[in-house]
Every structure is written in structure tokens, then in C-alpha cells.
């Protein structure tokens, strides 16, 4: 079955300890469709980390909004970035 891949990447942060998570509309997605890799230290001492969300074409085309959330000790409030089928061509 074809899958649609949505990738969220955080880079240039320090210290280590970012947490990436996903929501579908406002519901947390927790399951095998989410894969968050380990953070990796870069040569400049900052870190990079990515999380992948795998969706069926039917789920993606339902029009729901998918949001990646980033929390980190250096942030006063989480960062988030959203995408939906209507924003993509």
C-alpha cells in the first residue's frame, strides 16, 4: 500500500533534549505511524533530529491538519508547524 510521508526536522539546537510529537487536528498521534529518530550531534556542537509520520492516502486526503510539535528546554513555548492536503499541490 502506498504511504504518504511527512517529515519534521529540527536542527541547530542545544543542549540535547528536544521532543518531537505529532497531532492530527488536535489529537495526539501515538502509534506505529510515527517514527522519531535519535538526535545527532553536529560538528558545531548543535543537534539535529527528525520525526517521520506515515499516512495512508485516504487519511491524508481527509483534509485533517497534521502538526509537528517541538518542545525543548531553551524554548519558553513549543514550536509547531502544520501541514494539510489543501496546502500541497
UniProtKB/TrEMBL annotation:
Domain Ig-like intervals: 1-84
Entry-linked InterPro entries: Ig-like_dom, Ig-like_dom_sf, Ig-like_fold, Ig_C1-set, Immune_Resp_Modulators
UniProt key word tRNA processing: no
Entry protein name: Ig-like domain-containing protein
PROSITE patterns per the UniProt record, alphabetical: IG_LIKE
Pfam families from the UniProt entry: C1-set
Transmembrane segments: none
Keywords for this protein: Immunoglobulin domain
Keyword Manganese: no
Record CDD domains: IgC1
Amino acid at each position: 500500500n502506498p504511504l504518504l510521508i511527512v517529515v519534521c526536522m529540527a536542527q541547530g539546537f542545544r543542549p540535547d533534549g528536544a521532543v518531537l510529537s505529532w497531532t492530527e487536528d488536535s489529537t495526539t498521534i501515538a502509534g506505529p505511524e510515527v517514527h522519531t529518530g535519535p538526535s545527532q550531534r553536529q560538528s558545531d556542537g548543535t543537534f539535529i533530529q527528525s520525526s517521520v509520520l506515515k499516512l495512508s492516502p485516504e487519511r491524508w486526503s481527509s483534509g485533517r491538519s497534521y502538526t509537528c510539535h517541538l518542545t525543548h528546554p531553551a524554548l519558553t513555548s513549543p514550536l509547531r508547524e502544520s501541514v494539510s492536503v489543501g496546502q500541497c499541490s
